[in-house]
Amino acid sequence: QVQLVESGGGLVQAGGSLRLSCAASGRTFSSLSAGWFRQAPGKERDFVAAIRWGSAGTYYADSVKGRFTVSRDNAKNTVNLQMNSLKPEDTAVYYCATTSKRWSYESPITYDYWGQGTQVTVSS
């Protein structure tokens, strides 16, 4: 069993930055693939970014490519999402997810464990 807790959300002006962190317990995070998703009110949960186990690869949605960076901090057992040049359309609840199984990084159904989410609000 893996427990995930996100932190770092908040309110920021357009053009600003936030850094989200996802802390894992119950398993060494570096052995797991992990992803970030977001969900705006009334919309589906969308893929944002993912990192393969052992940091063997990173993946991004086109809408965030060049602005967001996903990384690991193995010493803290966290996966982080650095978000720069934020836009109002980035406003959503951001979720961290992970799996120890074979995955399709863009597909939420291939993830086994989810955090509770953290709100990111970008004002114009």
Any chance you could write out the topology, listing elements then pairs?
Layout: E1 3-7, E2 10-13, E3 18-25, E4 33-39, E5 46-51, E6 58-60, E7 68-73, E8 78-83, E9 92-99, E10 113-114, E11 118-123
Parallel strand pairs: 2-11
Antiparallel strand pairs: 1-3, 3-8, 4-5, 4-9, 5-6, 7-8, 9-10, 9-11
In short:
With 124 residues, the protein is an all-beta fold. The protein is built from no helices and eleven strands.
Task: Walk me through this protein's architecture.
The structure is a single chain. Helix content is 0%, strand content 49%. With 124 residues, it is mainly β. The protein starts with a strand and ends with a strand. The mean pLDDT is 95.
Q: What key phrases describe this protein's structure?
A:
124 residues; mainly beta; 7-stranded mixed β-sheet; 4-stranded antiparallel β-sheet; 11 strands; globular
Query: What summary fits the major beta sheet?
Result: 7 strands, mixed
Helices and strands, in order, run as: EEEEEEEEEEE
Strand content: over 45%
What coarse outline follows from CA principal-axis ratios?
globular
Low-confidence stretches: none
Rounded Rg: 13 Å
How many angstroms does the end-to-end distance come to? 40 Å
Mean pLDDT: 95
The secondary-structure class comes to: mainly beta
Number of DSSP helical runs: 0
The residue fraction in helices comes out at: under 10%
Number of strands: 11
